[in-house]
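Throughout this chapter, every protein is written as a compact record of paired, labelled lines. The reader may check this reading against the record printed directly beneath this paragraph:
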Amino acid sequence: MRKNRLFLVLSLMVAMALVLAACAQPTEAPAEPTKPPAPPTEAPPPTEPPPPPPTEAPPPELGSADHPIKVLFVPSVDVDFMIAGGDLIEQALNEATGLFFEVSVPTSYAATIEEMCASPDDTIGFIPAMGYALANQLCGVEPGLASVRYGWNVYWTEFVVARDSEFQTLEDLEGATWAYPDAGSTSGYLYPMSIFNDLGLTVGDTVEAGGHPQVVKAVYTGEADFGTCYFSAPLFPDRTWTVDDPPDVPDELVDECGLDEDGKLYCGEVRVLDARAAISAESPDVVQKVRILALSPEIPNDTMSFSPDFPDELRQLIMDAVIAYVGSEACDATLCNEKFYDWTGAAPIFDENFDGIRIMMEQQGITLENLGE
């Protein structure tokens, strides 16, 4: 009985504790202390605008030491001699104009034309008539001067053969081995090809000799049956050669041909100026070994031409300097030498002077792309 009462009392106490716990108000957790407000930040100082990018320096002026005028010569004759004379030409033109020049000899006629077009505003090229016509067609190269040689503003192709050969006419060259200087040569290639086409003549093997002296050498050594190269009229002591005269020296003078004390090629009193003279120093008997079979019609002389955008204000200054240089003794060591271009004068020439060349090129379908094919 006593246990039952104790159990009852304990049960009532537990029940009352549960009721009191259910009625009790929940207490909030104490709030975390608030942080003091951050002090006000200062406004950032104004930033300065970035400096402008540096401007590029202007390109050096054409004709200055940093931007010399390019002068190109086609490799038609003695290339080593031409290169050796480059410094003298640069110096002479600099003294005459106050401008700086850079002379070079590209590897071929085509390379000369391509370089003129690749440098359209700073290049001068000494190029033959067909080279000019091709360059004008390709990029608008313009003529300035043409050469004069011993009073002639034209020249010719000469067909040369061994003196003891049986060739007597151009028709006899059918099937013969032909040496020519370069497919870009007016006298060495364009005119002969036109003549062959007119005659219906087909040559045999061909030798691209690399220059006019090399053509003569190929015939001299027997490498080729005939060659085509430039002809300049001989100088007679008492008269002027005419187109009605035979192209070669008189037969009775052949045995007398050789070099004089100045290294010039003479036959008696007649001075030989055609391409055979170019190898006379190494082969003084060249006239005895090589004769002229025939000549072509007249050809306009080679030019000094300007790249298409060459400054107009510099052209006349440079042309005047070249004309004066060609008239000086200093030119004898370079441009006026027989081993170079043998200029004795220079005169203005104009685009229309090359219309005949253009017609001939069109008839043969010649372009820079198919040159020599």
In short: Confidence is low (pLDDT under 50) at residues 1-12, 14-31. The domain at 154-300 is CATH 3.40.190.10 (D-Maltodextrin-Binding Protein; domain 2). The chain is about 30% helix and 20% strand.
